[in-house]
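As promised in the previous annual report, we have extended the structural survey to additional targets. Below is the entry for GlmZ(SRNA)-inactivating NTPase.
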Amino acid sequence: MEFIIVTGLSGAGKSQAIKVMEDIGFYCMDNLPPALLPKFADLCFQSKRTIDRVAVVVDIRGGKFFNDLFHSLELLKKQGFKYRIIFLDASDEVLIKRFKETRRQHPLSKDGRIIDGIKEERKALKEVKEKSNHIIDTSKLTIGMLKEEIRKIFLEGKEAQNLTISILSFGFKHGLPLDADLVFDVRFLPNPYYIEELKEYTGNDKSVRDYVMNWEQTKIFVNKLIDLIDFLIPYYIKEGKTQLVIAIGCTGGRHRSVTIANVLYETLKDKEHRVVISHRDCK
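The corresponding structure token record, generated without further manual editing, is:
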């Protein structure tokens, strides 16, 4: 029997994840008290309905009952049940935004401050995150992307690496992205903005892309950039990093940075990395 425990930060997307798992054939249970995990697993195993794929959401909503989780996991092992843990995470900024949009109160924010609840929850979940088999950072994922990630893990049998690579194009004149881990300045490349017939287009258009990629320095830079990222990724994964934000900047964030970001995205995606892209200043 395949037994999956879904957990993670409040607002990180556990409800969406469990819906996807139900759609692909899992028998799902939301907000099960951890102490009941061994009994529930045994009940599913003994069921005449032949339940062979089970997913259970266990999270901080269980209050003090959540403290029973590790004891219950030990009991599952002793009973011979193999399990995997999938942990959903997101940045503090994204979680706060989601709670404000839905006008929900964080389950641990006693005084009404969302950030305090998030910090307390991160502390409580630190150990279970370290023991998780799959960590999905949903900060940059749409619901569609999250669905695809879940389907990759449980339908295609791919072991998803616990690192989401977010590629972001931006314009320096609009300010640096606050969440960037790596920033690359491509203002040294010839600027399509000064070509009258290209000025109103963006790096998403073929004419601009062809212009930017036609230069020898562009080709050399892209090759060196890809080599560097390929070198760094295994070390970021080894260090337990779950979100890598690579920011590519030009003056206005519409031409050169968009082109290079798109090329980097396509290259990394072809290597089956978990990659998302956004163009901050390209309207």
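Residues 87 and 135 are 5 Å apart (CA to CA). The beta strands are 2-8, 27-29, 53-57, 83-89, 134-137, 164-171, 182-185, 243-250, 275-279. These points will be discussed at the next consortium meeting with the crystallography subgroup.
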